[in-house]
Predict the structure.
Amino acid sequence: MHIEGKNNINFVAEKSKYMYRTHTCGELRIADSGKQVTLSGWVQRVRDKGKMIWIDLRDRYGITQLVAEDGTTDSATLDLIKKIGREYVLQVSGEVIERESKNANMSTGEVEIKILSINILSNSETPPFTIEEESDGGEELRMRYRFLDLRRPNLHRNLMLRHRMAQIVRNYLSDKEFIEVETPFLIKSTPEGARDFVVPSRMHEGKFYALPQSPQLFKQLLMVGGYDRYFQITKCFRDEDFRADRQPEFSQIDCEMAFVEQNDILETFEGLVKHVFKVVKGIDFTEPFQRMTYDEAMERYGNDRPDLRFGMRIVDFTQIVKGKDFKIFDEAEYIGAICAETPTEYTRKQLDALTDFVKRPQIGAKGLVYLKYGTDGSLKSSADKFYSTEELNRWVEALGATPGSLILVLSGDKSQTLSALSELRLEMGTQLNMRDKNKYAPLWVVDFPLFEKDSTTGRLHAMHHPFTSPKKSDLHLLETDPVKVKADAYDIVLNGSEIGGGSVRIFDRSIQSKMFDLLGFSKEEAEAQFGFLLNAFKYGAPPHAGIAFGFDRWVTIFSGSDSIRDVMAFPKNNAGKDIMLDAPAELHDDQLKELSLSVSYQKK
Ligand code: ASP
């Protein structure tokens, strides 16, 4: 990906105005030999070989090698050079010369700058870790010194990519008549299912604002306000427990349209995703993205964000294996299997490791049954006491297994077993290198249930949010069997990650009231929390629908990074802390006083 080049072009035209440099550190080539140039940047490293001294000078655009020579370079300059250490900021003037030993891995690798004069703009303490593509600093250290971490080329690349993707999205949507509207951060609670971050009000004692979990209610109000195509790249705030791909504040590409149905949204935003793929990755998806129902995703992949870079779909074995006196299977509600084509036969040790994997508390399976289908046609199973060869052959048939494959079977409660199978499938995909970062498998997951039922309290919760429209064909079930009601809700999934999701909204007040009712809100509660929306709906609400993309996640996948922290300039750590700022922090007494607050801790 060549994002550097494009930026350099703009920069070249501008930079002669600046006194600090005539060129960037990523720019000079053999054709520039003989030119007098001035560069500014950071010292990547100094190699002092006695007679010759080399310095690698780095900026955002690249690295250029500088050279000084005892006898040629004047002694005052040489004395200065001897003082230089890593991460010093230099301004260097000199002549571009051809390098004796060229470095084909660097874009400037054919030249070096013969130093004529040097100006130390800033010195530096020895940095706590090396500023290179792969740093030797641990996460904690790099976060504390994020300003140094940000100097690493991969972070430059990631933030450039993020910037470009934002530009592409803005241009694409603007060309399609979407307008970007900012919505407030100091608001009242929005219902995205997480806890709110709250901000105390000084002027209104004892009252608090909530930070938006998303601009959901505002974008719906914008539709009522007549702005039929809205988008915004904005921050959302959710106080949730932390996971690898979660941050308490993150960015969404938030969108809403009026006078549309589900299909219009899917087509419009599939267009956006394809466009970004084409411009950023050079990948042309000519076929429509697959649309898979939620039920199919759950049955065949065990979760609602299937990674379709590989097959290994789950097959329901419940009918096939029951009734053979194998107690574990006979007592299970559900039995499911996957089939992996392994390059070599899995050893006892590998199978034990897989068993340990599925038994981890977060996965929660009781055990693992396997069947090895040898390249010679042999069948070896951990349950062959209970199953004849003929019966095991039925397993092979059910999965369409070919010789040399490994069948893995889990059993238990249905939803928990499917979710364990999903984890096992992903683990096998990883072990067998089927989750190639350069391969992309987007799809839509559609027809989500409207509600999910809390297994302990029996209460219904909105699976997406309370403004999501039930499918027209399921309206009659709202009264009788709400758990069966499907919603006009959809997610866009890429390589096993949900990169976006949205829904058609309820715009009929009576259905909205029914929805609040089913979710257990009293009339008064609904009025207190969402009265303004219900009120707006009294004055002509257009049919509307929308979607929001998790921008950080999308950039993470495109950048090939493992964590969303790598595509954010100043992320929080795994415990939600900004280690550099030392936030969150306590407030001064004065501040508390101004807010009319005193802090005392309640036991949780
Ligand atoms: N507000 C939703 C979310 O943040 C997206 C949407 O329904 O448009 O997930």
